[in-house]
Every structure is written in structure tokens, then in C-alpha cells.
Amino acid sequence: MCIRGWAVVLLSAAFSLVFVGGVPSAPVPKDAGGRTFFPTAPGTKWVYVCGQDEFQVAVLKSSTTDRVTTLTLGRPDDPKAATSELVVSDEGVFESRARTYRFDPPVCVLKLPAKKGDTWAVKSWWTTSDGPPGQRGIEFTGSVSVRAVEKVAVPAGTFEALKVRADDERGVFLGWQRWYVPGVGVVKIDTGEDIYELKSFEPGK
């Protein structure tokens, strides 16, 4: 069963790359920010497979203020399931909440503009979402790096994707690899234990 990585699927970001084949995506302007790279329209839906398991992830809510878009991601087939939250801006993509856990400050999972070889440090506090306001849990530090631009084949098609890796000193909060494609988002995730691959993508309206 693919369980540990399911929360990671809900934490998706994207970056401009060259489309090779599979799910079509629109051209992305070179000076476009993170809000263009990552699909932000409500109703956008991704279907991932992990072994014999299949999961749906969708943009349930999207709001933009001062060029900063906050997304609520969750399972459209289960309205009672926990949700996650991303903050997308011209500076990058940030994870502020992962299901029942929140990050203070939000963790930058993709710094924009980005290129192969880029590395940036992350430092945040992790706590449960239902904890008292202002409470800080466990501090963690780590780094995120753009490792390569490479072709990746998934059930949805073959893409030229940006490979990004995140690690933290404790080896608990981060420790994943993701492959990003423009206008589509994450097409593959390797959590170290489970591998999720994109089966289909449906843009929102």
C-alpha cells in the first residue's frame, strides 16, 4: 500500500520545461511567475498511480491577493479527507500545510526563476494544524536543489521534466524527488519508499 507518500502527492509545484509527449500543455512565457507554472484554476485534477493504488488530487479552492495565489488541494472523491495548502507567487512555490501538519514559515519547494544546479536552504517549524495558534513544534532545516532536466515516462506520457530533490537534516520532513512539467505540475514523485506517477491530468476552468 502506498500510504506514506500520499501526503507528498498533495504538495505539488511546477516549473517551465519543454513538452515532449503525453498530456499537452500551453506555451509558458519566459518571464512568467510561479502562478503560471503551476495550474491554479479550481477543478484542476490529477490522477496518480502507485503500484496497484490510484489517487485523485484536485484544486478545491484558489484565491489570489497581490499576485500571491493560495491553493487548497485535496481529494475530490472524498470531501471528508484532509487537505493541503500551497502558496504560489512569482518568487516560487511554498508549502504551508500538509494535511494535518503546518509549516511556519512556509517551506519553499521551488524557487523561481530556477535552473539546473540551483540550491537553496530551508528552515521552518513543523506542528499539527489543530495545535494552539502561534505554537511551534519541531524545528527542521534542509535544502532543495534542481538536479537535472531529463526525460521521464509515466502512464500519462513522456515528458522532459525538471528533477528536484529536497532533504532535511533529520531525514523526516523532506527527503523526496519530484519531476515537474509546465502547465501540468508534478508528473512523478519518489518519496524514498513509494513512487507516484501521473496517469491523467484535467485542467480546471
Strand residue content: over 45%
Q: What is the CA–CA distance across the termini? A: 33 Å
CATH architecture: Beta Barrel
CATH topology: YmcC-like fold
Give the CA-based shape: globular
Q: If you compute it from the alpha carbons, what radius of gyration comes out, rounded to the nearest whole angstrom?
A: 16 Å
**Helix content estimate:** under 10%
Write down the overall mean pLDDT.
79
- Main β sheet profile: 12 strands, antiparallel, barrel
Task: Give a description of the structure.
It contains two helices and twelve strands. With 205 residues, it is mainly beta. It has a twelve-stranded antiparallel β-barrel with strand order 1-2-3-4-5-6-7-8-9-10-11-12. A hairpin with a 3-residue loop joins β10 and β11. The longest helix is centred in the first third of the chain and has 4 residues. It starts with 5 loop residues before the first helix and ends with a strand.
Briefly characterize the structure.
This protein has 205 residues and is mainly beta. Helix content is 4%, strand content 53%.
